[in-house]
């Protein structure tokens, strides 16, 4: 827009001045309706080739309902943030997502494009009340990026960053079943409610697949990507990514930085909690089938640990269904503390021998002090060499 302003022959001003005046105007860019929706694309293609009027009307109705559902999810997020802002001492809203993997080493040489690299993960949480952004970061040898890792980051954040006095917590995320929408995250919420001194209720909202634009965290990831492309010359080892992300959030107006980076090295085996007093369920208490992929709202309460109220619709009038994780004979009010039984997952997750070979071949471009890090990376013969961003998690398409 600044370029268009200059091309139209307006009085010359710098980009920073233009941005300042633009922000004063109160104008905003409307978020995209979709960030790549398979269902929308399929319906659009089917509609384009459909000649039967009755079928076409049915398809248009299906598309309209799908879009309304997506808009309702966005509206609920906006409302939850507004309510939390009114009572910050009692309510909080968190929005979270994983950034695309950060390849290590990050170099400008041509050889890097033909070499397999080590990946660093950045799980980002935004607190709308404080306006703070938290980046929990680790490399692929320290941990995977599955539900145990995501749940461990969330648990640490809730217990360490949600202050005493807060009673209600609202979570918003995408619906990736391999990371967010599964029984492991349910286990995490039960532990959080047991351990936090004042938290009484946690409600987790999963946005509609293909309509998971979350500017609260997506914009932060864009800042990091821009810093990486324009200002970052080299990253030799994972620890330098932690410094780079921290520096990416530093501005003249905020010299201390907008991002709080936490190097996460310990992850709990939360999935193991569903093997004792708690168990996975595929049916609700009403005996009707339960499916995570079609469920969008999970409501947990301290007074009924082990039980969650769920529903697939975002409409306020639609009823909740009760899902119990309690093993037969176990009562919620007699459920022991879950956290003491949690075990820490072993570190040193191996990479493929081929990847390590490629990493060793890049040592000529790195300082000698970093060589030992790469030589010490663990490997196994049967480790699959896949790009985490391209690996299909359990399908999250409804």
UniProtKB/TrEMBL annotation:
Keyword list, A-Z: Coiled coil
Q: The organism sits in which domain of life? A: Eukaryota
Query: Which residue ranges does the record annotate as region Disordered?
Result: 377-398
Name residues in a coiled coil. 40-87
UniProt xrefs under PANTHER family: DNA-DIRECTED RNA POLYMERASES I, II, AND III SUBUNIT RPABC2, PTHR10773:SF19
This protein is called Ribonuclease Y
Question: What species is given as this protein's source?
Answer: Frankliniella fusca
